Amino acid sequence: MFQYFEAFLFIFIPLFSWFLISYNLLIRDKIRLDIAIKEMAEEFQEKQKLIPILMNAINQYLPFSEVAKQRITELNVNFEECTNIYHFLTNINLLENQLLEYIKQIDNNTDANDDQIFNDLKHRLSQVDIRVKKFMMQYHRTAKHLNIRLGTFPANMFAKFFRIKPAEQLENKH
Q1: pLDDT by residue for the chain (174 residues), tens digit each?
Q2: Taking the CB of residue 21, how many other CB atoms lie within 10 A of it?
Q3: Where are the beta strands (DSSP E) in 22-76?
Q4: For residue 5, what are the CA distances in angstroms to 12, 23, 43, 171?
Q5: N or C end: fewer C-beta atoms under 10 angstroms in the chain?
Q6: pTM
């Protein structure tokens, strides 16, 4: 009788530990993924706050056409209004490309190069971009770990039970 109990413990404890560790790793990756998305959203919101200020600074040296103003306004969507982060990333990338074209044209203007406010805005925008890239890398790394974990047993059972879906790879064309 005691042999059966030892055998049961010998099998049950490692098996239970394996399930427990798998569950904890799955939940850890899901939480890290959610944190990375939240941090990216905060940085994108910071970027959105800078865009109207940058537009005013650009407009001093290179006036926008009405079409360009309308296009930039359309692209500068509010993060909360986006249906998903992919839509937001697409809009923010198009907007950045538009503004970078104007900034390149202005950089040839010596008055703009001497403008400390304009240079500070460009610097703040580049710092936000650096942080966004960091959080994007963190997101992709965690998404990869989560997706691999979701394809293995017993994590795939926990994922089905708790309705954890695979993470999609975000594309940000910086």
Answers
A1: 678 888 888 889 999 999 999 999 999 999 999 898 888 888 877 877 887 787 777 777 777 677 777 777 776 665 556 656 666 677 777 777 777 777 777 777 656 667 777 778 788 888 888 888 888 888 899 999 999 999 998 889 989 998 888 988 776 544
A2: 12
A3: none
A4: 10, 26, 56, 54
A5: N
A6: 0.70
